[in-house]
Design goal:
Strand order of the largest sheet: 17-16-18-19-25-24-23-21
CATH topology of the largest domain: Rossmann fold
Radius of gyration: 43 Å
Number of strands: 32
Structural class: alpha/beta
Strand content: 25-35%
Distance between the termini: 51 Å
Length: about 675
C-alpha cells in the first residue's frame, strides 16, 4: 500500500478544528432572584465543567470527515498482482472439427465430452466455445448462458480443413494480450500428429493459460486414401490425356485396392493396384473421354476402413478444341519452325495448333482467330500486315518477336517499335559466346524455366529498351528478353533467334518450359489445375476483368458472396470439399474441384510424452521464469473513489446529527 500524494496528509492537522469548536462553548448563566449576597465571599468561578466535550458522536463524525478528506487527496493505493486483479476465470472450450474428425464417431465423442465439461462448471463461471481447423473460429463470446453454450457445441459440424495446433497456440497468445483473467483451456481433439507445427516452440502458451487435453482417440487407425490425382484442368485430345492416381496406406497391411475413374457420376474405367504395407502405389488411366465443356470427375477406391471420407478425390476438366497460333518466318529459315513447333507440341499437350507461314503468306490472315503470333527473325513486314498486328495487340493480343541475323539487317523492330542499336556477334570475339547474367524470376516466361544456366548465345541484337521491361540480360548487360505493353496486349522481344545457329537454346531442356510458359502468357490464359485444396484461395478475376461482376456457387448450391463482394472481391477461399462454380458477367465460366488436405488422412496420434510436455510446460524453464515474472508484476489499484463514497456517507450523517443537536440546544433555554 502507498500514497501517490503523501503531502496531502498534512491536512490531518485540521482534525483539531472540530475539537476546538466543541470546547469553545460560552458559559451562560440564568439570573435567579436572591435576597442578599452579603454573606457570600468573592471567589473566581471554575469553568472546567463547561469545557468538557459534548456530543461525542457528532465530534467523531466531523473528525472522521476531515481525516477521510485528507486521505482522499493523498490518493492512497494498494499493489495488486496482475494475476490476482480479478477472481474470474474464463473456461475456454476448443473443439477440433478438422477433416480427420469425420473418421468414426470422433466429432460426436468430442461434443459429448465438451457438454460434460459445460455441465460441471459453476453457474457464475464464464465460458466460451471455439472450433479449431486451419484457423481458430469463434462460435460464442464469453457467456454464462448455458443454453447458448450448449447450442454452439451441439451445432458444430466437421470441416474439410487441416487441423493446426500451432494456429491454436498463436491465437491464444494474441487473446492473452486482451484477456487478463486466467484461462482454463479444454481441447477436444483426436490429437493428430500431422496437426503439430514444425517447431515445438510454436506450441508455447501464455502464462495465464492452463491446458486440459481431451483425446477422443487412443491409438492410430489404419487408413487407405486417394492421396493425389494428377489430371489436367483442360482437355483437347481425350485419347492423349493421362490421369495419374497415387493411393497411399497409413498404418495398413499390404493390400489390393480397386481404383475407379468416374465422369459425371458414371464409372468409365477401373484398375487394380497393389499397395504395399504402409506405402504408396501409382495407377494411370490412359485416356479421359469427356464431353465438350466442363465435366465433374472423380477417382475413388473401394472402402475398406473407418474413414471413407478420403476414399475419393474430385477434379474438374474442360474440353475444348486446341487454340490456333500463328508462326511467321523467313523462307530461308527452316530450323526455327521445327524447333518451336516441337517444343510447343510436347509442352502444351496439344493445347495449341501452330500455323507456320512465310512473311508473304501472312498478309491478309484474320489475326483475331489466333491465340498469339510469333515473328521469327523477320527482316521486314508489309505495312498492311504490321498495322493489322498493331491493332491485334492493342485489342489484347500477344506477339512474340525473335530477332536473329535476318532482323539485324533492319533499322527497327516491327510492332515493338524499338530501334536496333547494333548487332553483336560473340562467336567472332575472344569469349566465343555469352551466357545469361541476370533473369527476373517474377516474369511469367522465366519463373518456371530456371536460370538458363549453360545456354550459349553466339549472336544478339542490341535494342533500345525504352518503355519496356527487361526480364533477361546477358553477362555484358545486353537486354535479351524484353516486354512492352501496347494497349491491352503485350509484345515480347527475344533478342536472338529461335534456331540453333544464333544460340544453342533449342538444344537445352529449359527451352520447352520457356516456350510453354510464354505461349500460355501471350494467349492470355493460365494452365489450370484439375483440383484445389480446401482452405486455399481462388482468383476470381484476371487483370482485364476488374469491372466484371462475378457469382460463386458453393457445393450446396448456395451463393456465399454478397452483392458488394460479387462486385469487388478479388479472391475467394474454398473452405469446403466439393465442386464450386464460377460465373462472370462477361460469359466466362469455371468449375473447380476441391478436396480436403490429404495430410489429414494420416491418423497417427501424438505420443503421450509429447502431450505431457505440452500440457505441463511446453517452453521449459524459460516459460516458467516468464510465468513467475508475469505473476510478480503488480499494478497500483487506487482507493480514491471508495474513500469519497465514505466521505459522502459521513457528511450526510453529520448533517442529520448536527441538525438534531441544534434543535436540542434551542430547547435547553
Amino acid at each position: 500500500m502507498g500514497f501517490l500524494a503523501p503531502w496531502f496528509l498534512a491536512g490531518l492537522a485540521a482534525v483539531a478544528v472540530p475539537i476546538y469548536v466543541h470546547l469553545l462553548r460560552r458559559h451562560t448563566t440564568i439570573p435567579h432572584p436572591f435576597s442578599s449576597l452579603m454573606f457570600f465571599d468573592r471567589r473566581t468561578q471554575s469553568s472546567i465543567k463547561h469545557r468538557r466535550l459534548r456530543y461525542l458522536v457528532l465530534l467523531s463524525l466531523r473528525t472522521l470527515l476531515l481525516v477521510l478528506l485528507a486521505l482522499a487527496f493523498a490518493n492512497p493505493f494498494i499493489n495488486r498482482t496482475a494475476a490476482n486483479m480479478s477472481n474470474e476465470k474464463l473456461l475456454l472450450l476448443v473443439i477440433d472439427n478438422s477433416f480427420s474428425m469425420r473418421a468414426g464417431s470422433r466429432l460426436a465423442d468430442a461434443r459429448r465430452e465438451a457438454l460434460s465439461v459445460l455441465s460441471s462448471r459453476r453457474p457464475a463461471e464464464r465460458a466460451q466455445i471455439m472450433a479449431l481447423g486451419s484457423q481458430l473460429q469463434v462460435l460464442t463470446q464469453p457467456s454464462q448462458d448455458a443454453g447458448a453454450l450448449r447450442a454452439a457445441v451441439e451445432s458444430l459440424q466437421p470441416g474439410d480443413s487441416r487441423g493446426s495446433f500451432g494456429e491454436l497456440a498463436r491465437a491464444l497468445r494474441s487473446l492473452a494480450e486482451t484477456v487478463r483473467t486466467p484461462i482454463e483451456l479444454h481441447l477436444f481433439s483426436d490429437m493428430q500428429k500431422s496437426a503439430m507445427p514444425a517447431s515445438f516452440a510454436e506450441l508455447a502458451l501464455p502464462a495465464n493459460v492452463s491446458l486440459v487435453l481431451h483425446s477422443v482417440v487412443k491409438n492410430a487407425v489404419p487408413n487407405w486414401t486417394v492421396e493425389s490425382v494428377n489430371a489436367p484442368g483442360q482437355v483437347w485430345d481425350p485419347k492423349k490425356t493421362r490421369v495419374q492416381v497415387v493411393v497411399a496406406g497409413f498404418g495398413t497391411p499390404a493390400e489390393t485396392r480397386t481404383v475407379s475413374l468416374l465422369v459425371n457420376g458414371k464409372t468409365i474405367a477401373t484398375r487394380s493396384v497393389e499397395v504395399p504395407a504402409g506405402g504408396r502405389a501409382t495407377v494411370e488411366f490412359e485416356s479421359l473421354d469427356v464431353p465438350y465443356g466442363f465435366t465433374r470427375c472423380e477417382v475413388r477406391i473401394d472402402s475398406a476402413d473407418a474413414f471413407p471420407a478420403d476414399d475419393a478425390s474430385l477434379f474438374a476438366v474442360e474440353r475444348s478444341d486446341p487454340r490456333r497460333a500463328l508462326f511467321v518466318y523467313e523462307p530461308g529459315d527452316s530450323r526455327s519452325p521445327l524447333y518451336f513447333s516441337s517444343a510447343l507440341a510436347s509442352a502444351a499437350e496439344a493445347a495449341f495448333t501452330l500455323d507456320a507461314v512465310t512473311v508473304s503468306q501472312a498478309a491478309g490472315l484474320p489475326l483475331s482467330k489466333y491465340a498469339f503470333v510469333v515473328l521469327s527473325d523477320v527482316m521486314s513486314l508489309p505495312s498492311s500486315f504490321e498495322n493489322d498486328l498493331l491493332r491485334y495487340v492493342q485489342s489484347g493480343g500477344g506477339v512474340w518477336i525473335a530477332a536473329g541475323t535476318f532482323a539485324a539487317h533492319g533499322v527497327r523492330i516491327p510492332v515493338f517499335g524499338g530501334n536496333i542499336l547494333e548487332s553483336r556477334d560473340y562467336s567472332r570475339s575472344g569469349e566465343r559466346f555469352l551466357t545469361v547474367g541476370e533473369a527476373d524470376p517474377s516474369h511469367p516466361s522465366v519463373q518456371k524455366a530456371g536460370r538458363w544456366s549453360g545456354v550459349k548465345f553466339y549472336f544478339a541484337v542490341r535494342v533500345d529498351p525504352a518503355n519496356s521491361r527487361v526480364a533477361v540480360r546477358l553477362t555484358d548487360q545486353t537486354p535479351l528478353l524484353l516486354e512492352k505493353k501496347i494497349g491491352e496486349g503485350s509484345v515480347l522481344l527475344f533478342a536472338s533467334g529461335l534456331d540453333n545457329l544464333t544460340n544453342d537454346f533449342p538444344l537445352h531442356p529449359v527451352f520447352v518450359p520457356f516456350v510453354e510458359q510464354t505461349a500460355w502468357y501471350l494467349s492470355g490464359t493460365e494452365r489450370r489445375s484439375g483440383s484445389r485444396v480446401a482452405g486455399s484461395f481462388f482468383e476470381l478475376r484476371s487483370s482485364k476483368e476488374q469491372a466484371v461482376g462475378v457469382e460463386v456457387i458453393d457445393p450446396d448450391g448456395h451463393r456465399p458472396l454478397s452483392l458488394k463482394e460479387a462486385a469487388s472481391a478479388q479472391t475467394f477461399q474454398l473452405t469446403r470439399a466439393g465442386f464450386y462454380e464460377l460465373q462472370l458477367a462477361n460469359g466466362r465460366h469455371d468449375v473447380i474441384g476441391v478436396n480436403a488436405d490429404r495430410r489429414e488422412s494420416d491418423l497417427a496420434v501424438i505420443p503421450d510424452d509429447v502431450l505431457s510436455l505440452w500440457r505441463g510446460n511446453p517452453a521449459g524453464a524459460a516459460k516458467a521464469a516468464a510465468g513467475r515474472q508475469a505473476q510478480e508484476q503488480t499494478k497500483p489499484y487506487t482507493l480514491w473513489w471508495y474513500i469519497m463514497l465514505v466521505v459522502l456517507a459521513a457528511a450526510v450523517a453529520e448533517s442529520l446529527l448536527a441538525d438534531q443537536y441544534l434543535g436540542i440546544q434551542q430547547e435547553e433555554p
